[in-house]
Predict the 3D structure of the following.
Amino acid sequence: MYINHCIIYISVHTSILRCSRSLVALYFSFQTFSEFVVIRPEFSIDSSTGTISSVVLKTQCTILAPNYDLIDFKLCDERLWTLWCNAEGEIQALFYELNVQGNTGSFHNVWSPIILENISDKEHLPLEAGVDLKDVYCSRIFQSGIFPDAVIRKSLLMFNRNIASATTNSSAINSNMLRLKRYALSCIESQLQQECATMRQDGPMDEDQLQELSNGLWEKFYLYCIQYRYESARPIGLFLCEEEQEDTSYFMAGIIRKKFVSFFRICDELEEAFFGPNCYDKYLTNENCSKEEKEMMLLITFLSEVEQALSVEQKAQLDNFIHQRGEIEKSDMNSSLIGAVQNQFLVHNLLPAFLQRISNLSQAIQTFLAYVKPVNKEQYFSEQHNETRRFTVYSNYELSSEIALSTTKQTVQLRYLLLRNCLLILHIIERHGNFHYHVINAMQSNIRPETDNKISASLPFDTRTAMTLLQAYAISQLNDEIMPRSNTFSSFEIANAVKLLTLQQKTNLIIAFICPSSDDFLFGEWLSNNNLHVYIDEYVRLLSNWCEWNSCSRNFIKAKSYLATGDTFKALDLFPLSLKGIYHERILKKFVCQDEKTSATSPYAALTAFYLKLISLFQKCGAYDGVLTLVHSGIDHTFDPAQQTMFQSIEFNCHVELGHYEEAYNTLVKNREPARKRDCLRQLTSLLFTVRRLDILLELPYYGLQDEFLNIVTMSARSADITNCLQYDFLYSFHINKMNLRRGAIISYEEGIRNFLECNSLNHLNRYYNCIMKCLNALSVIKESFAWIVYPVIEQVEDDKIEIVDKKRLEEQLITTHCALLLSTNNEGCKLVTSLDATNLISLMLKRKLYRSALKLARCRMQSMVPTIYEHLTSSCIGASSATYEGLSTDAVGGDGDLPWLNDNGVSDIVTVSDSATTAWNYLCHTLEQEEYHLAVDAYLAVFNRILSRCAYIPTWLKKWCFENTPIQYIRAYLRHGRLEEAYENTIELFRTRFFSAGRFNQHTIFPLTMCEYLLFELENSSTHDKVRISPSM
């Protein structure tokens, strides 16, 4: 209580309290300083009651706080964790070691720093003006791994929000990093075009202005990414988690940020020596450390000083040299050009002082190289690991895996920096050091080559590598690859061993899986399976000049990467380079045999399987132009005819996919196996019908395959739905083109019969009509004796008699179908109309006044109906005349004064006049003139009788024809209708013209005595005629 009063009395500005299991910490902020007071409560227990009798608060220690702004602090029994913000706005995390053994022990009052990952942009080189910075910004944003997907999405949203015409593509904005990059490129390019269009209104633009605009937009987008990355990483506070397992307390600490959390972990020896300024002094006083380890730590401390001495430009130049160097001999020639080698402070100050402190530099470097060498994976499961007080999480596998991966990334990055600086020191010593010859020789022959190998092994995961790459691969190998590859322990024991590994041991194990010399190309296989093409290119490039392991496999995954990105010809150049590895390299054996532990039965079988797998891979990627090259290579590497036939079939399919139909046909012709040849021909035929390239089918030279081809098309036509008559049309054209007219007629008639029998629509009835017309046209060209076909067998019946179809029957079917089409234009029952007999069909057509078609049908099927048709036609003509003479409206004849039925019967062959009635009579005259003679007499008389029955005017041409050709029937018609005077006058005219004289006809003429007697009888009994005038004449 006294302490509290004192605190209040001296005017505390801020006070915060935190506690642990046995301690309490208070933070006090005064005007001039701040401090932490750690209090340890002590309890007294009453022995009689077992309750707390008193509590004594003892001050454990008082710690002067740094002169920073406190964000948060946490307390555990061993350490005090704090989070600060310094004057520059940078975040610093510090911890303080507490002495919990004594009550009033002495304290060194030294805060220990926690090394935080750098999230600033200060490590990048300043950008040059006047150059295209698009690739630079793309590399920083999308390939460095610094910016998470969420940050890039947020930056794109804000970038588009400030552009009025930009629209956000939700599918692209929520996709993977590759699509995000493409979307960002399209957005910036669209904005660049708009700004260019605006500026061009004021005048033309040069290339420099365009470059400046582009760089400005990319810089704006990059600043958005920096802003939102910094905002997402803004610290909020600290967290401290403790877990009790088997009487042991495990805990972890970290920073709570706005969008994620950061975890603290214990540094390994290299990290402690690199980041800790007082580390070497601790190792000097440690009796358990050997002399080699102490000198190695001295070397690490010196390499840390070298890192601080190098400028950003020198580091970048050194990194570029390491990444772009070729062979080791070339690096000797170019190392003198590196600016870091000429660093005066390093050469004249740091290096001499370091050489005076170290006794055996070569041994120190070799100890360091042995330390960073990947461990033997199998040995990690033969040891028991008893770990206490480690920053680990045992309750969540995903979280512990994430921490292990982050640790691996940081460890590899640090080892890369150490190896890079060590390589630099070796170059400097060789040029500026005064070592003995054997020391220089050892460095050149052993140490520097081994350093090159080690640095190359860490190159795929240096500072340029994205964190997501490790997150996606390495930790999965702990369970997926270790367990099946270990034969010493059971699966349960291995799983427990993996669980009990410390964080550092997990890190070393992951590095062992990543290192190309020890991972059996598992990482390269994983890169290829996940299509990480950028990293595949970097991985292969970095290992190409030094790594002898799995060289064929590297060419293979590089070729697959080229293939997936559309560079087919580069892939074709690299795949043959991987042929040598199909017998001994794991990934290639797995690719060929599906099992890395088995081998092909023979070299030729292995080559054939390899080419088949490659062909399948190319086909999957749609690179059919490369398949042809592989097929030819496969044929050259095999002597088995069956295998060659298979490759020829693949070549055929490839040509088909590419649309090379003529080449596909030429390929199938060369195929030696008849069954495959027929299958390929069937496939090509079906495809050409699908794409409607019938011109190719007509022009192909069928070398002995014409019958097979026609059978395929015919079977396809008969099995296909008749609604698609493309095959029948092609067959008809093919046979007509080959002048096989009779066969073409058979195909056309078969198509027509199927349309008639299988369908009921008007469209198919029209198709039936066209098919019969084509059939009739084909038969009309050939000789009359061969102008017939056999009725096609559509359905198999018991009585399989052969039915002949000649031209006459075809004409009857054609005319009948035409009449049915005329009657069924607006009638759904067209099939019913076709089933009527000729009499009923003609009757329906007369009702519709379709006289022309009715006459055609009657002439070929029922000639006795011809006079009836003319009677109806005459009645229509009489009606037209009556309508004209009586002055009826145009609606009685037609909308524009024409007769509708005249248009339906085709009056194009006659002369039309303005008077519709005259046109109708002209049409009747023209139709009668076209009639054959054996039907013309009855037709004329039918017309004449109908006019007489309707008491209409008889045209002169009709009376003239009847008088000259059928005088007896002509006069009798008058008599039947009571027209005695006209009968009398025509009879007299017959005698006057000596119609009955023997010279008029070649044969004898019989005098119509009965008719004349009947005419006289009627005249005598008639009261309306002059008997005096008749008697002299008769």
User: Anything to note?
Assistant: The radius of gyration is 54 Å. Residues 387 and 889 are 116 Å apart (CA to CA).
